[in-house]
């Protein structure tokens, strides 16, 4: 069956598991609660920044697609969001970012030292929760995922040479950095089912996660600060090499490639230089190529759902694919 994109909203996608998702957020608050004042202050800030909860949504929809959602699934969904929060706190500190979801980052509001320690705290709370719940299978999944995400971050840090960085290297990076957690979230939801459905949902999450990251990288070229919560062109300003640029480079002239090289070697590139490179990427087809890649990845993800029982949850998982590549923030 061909996968057709349709206008969707995240609240609409979440509707089949709305009560369970709210319960997972309550679980998250319980898991990270701490008496130590500074930890409590940071926790309050993170909870006020309540994100879209897309990853726990995937876990709960996957659980609903194979069986009824149980209390254990709600806790696992909370753990997924906890791991995601930990990565965001660490990423913002590494990148020296000052905004996340339009709000000050932990490192900007407190300090880089506190951000690093808080990321560690959130990771450790996730592990404690899995161990105390006796969720050994879930612990195996999340241990693998967190290791893969760490390798993905290292791959991104090693992406120095914009003119030589390959699409294959980019694929390896986004598989580990972003797709691994979405894949793990879907797999957690399917732990109770047979290996065939579990593997199908794991693969679905992998392809979805890759499409999600490509679309996210596109927003740096096509979005605005109002919708993304961060300045457009921030990836270029931070010398991050993403698919739109990778796809455009082979079609650029020598002088155009030298402009890209100038940006990547400038410690503080100007807005004009960033705007010039964004225009070059669009003119040389980088944005169109990245959009097509994201669409192809959603087709691969959709194919994995053929082995999942039909129903509202599977329909919502299909809608997640449209959301991943059509969202504006």
Structure description:
The protein has 329 residues and is mainly α. It contains 17 helices and two strands. The model is unreliable at 1-5 and 226-230 (pLDDT under 50). The protein has a single domain, classed as Orthogonal Bundle (Farnesyl Diphosphate Synthase), CATH 1.10.600.10. The protein has helices at 10-14, 18-32, 37-48, 54-66, 71-95, 106-109, 112-132, 136-157, 167-189, 195-222, 225-228, 234-237, 243-248, 254-265, 271-283, 286-304, 312-326; strands at residues 99-100, 103-104.
Task: Please give the structural blueprint.
Elements (H helix, E strand, L loop, with lengths): L9 H5 L3 H15 L4 H12 L5 H13 L4 H25 L3 E2 L2 E2 L1 H4 L2 H21 L3 H22 L9 H23 L5 H28 L2 H4 L5 H4 L5 H6 L5 H12 L5 H13 L2 H19 L7 H15 L3
Antiparallel strand pairs: 1-2
Helix pairs in contact: 2-5, 4-5, 4-9, 4-17, 5-7, 5-8, 5-9, 8-9, 9-10, 10-16, 10-17, 14-15, 16-17
């Amino acid at each position: 069956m061909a996968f057709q994109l349709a206008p969707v909203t995240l609240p609409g996608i979440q509707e089949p598991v709305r009560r369970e998702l709210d319960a997972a957020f309550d679980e998250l608050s319980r898991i990270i609660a701490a008496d130590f004042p500074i930890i409590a202050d940071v926790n309050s800030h993170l909870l006020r920044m309540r994100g879209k909860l897309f990853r726990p949504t995937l876990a709960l929809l996957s659980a609903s697609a194979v069986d009824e959602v149980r209390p254990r699934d709600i806790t696992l969904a909370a753990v997924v969001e906890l791991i995601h929060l930990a990565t965001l706190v660490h990423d913002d500190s590494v990148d020296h970012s000052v905004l996340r979801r339009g709000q000050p980052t932990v490192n900007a509001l407190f300090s880089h030292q506190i951000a690093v320690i808080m990321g560690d705290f959130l990771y450790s709370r996730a592990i404690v929760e899995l161990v105390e719940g006796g969720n050994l299978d879930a612990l195996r999944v999340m241990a693998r995922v967190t290791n893969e995400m760490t390798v993905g971050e290292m791959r991104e840090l090693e992406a120095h040479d914009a003119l030589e960085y390959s699409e294959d290297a980019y694929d390896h990076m986004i598989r580990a950095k972003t797709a691994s957690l979405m894949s793990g979230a879907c797999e957690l939801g399917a732990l109770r089912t047979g290996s065939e459905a579990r593997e199908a949902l794991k693969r679905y999450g992998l392809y979805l996660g890759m499409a999600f990251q490509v679309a996210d990288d596109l927003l740096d070229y096509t979005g605005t600060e109002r919708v993304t919560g961060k300045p457009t062109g921030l990836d270029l300003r931070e010398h991050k090499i993403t698919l739109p640029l990778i796809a455009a480079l082979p079609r650029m002239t020598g002088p155009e490639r030298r402009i890209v090289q100038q940006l990547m070697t400038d410690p503080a590139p100007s807005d004009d230089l960033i705007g010039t490179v964004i225009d070059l990427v669009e003119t040389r087809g980088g944005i169109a190529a990245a959009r097509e890649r994201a669409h192809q990845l959603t087709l691969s993800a959709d194919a994995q759902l053929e082995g999942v029982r039909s129903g509202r949850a599977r329909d919502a998982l299909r809608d997640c694919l449209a959301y991943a590549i059509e969202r504006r923030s």
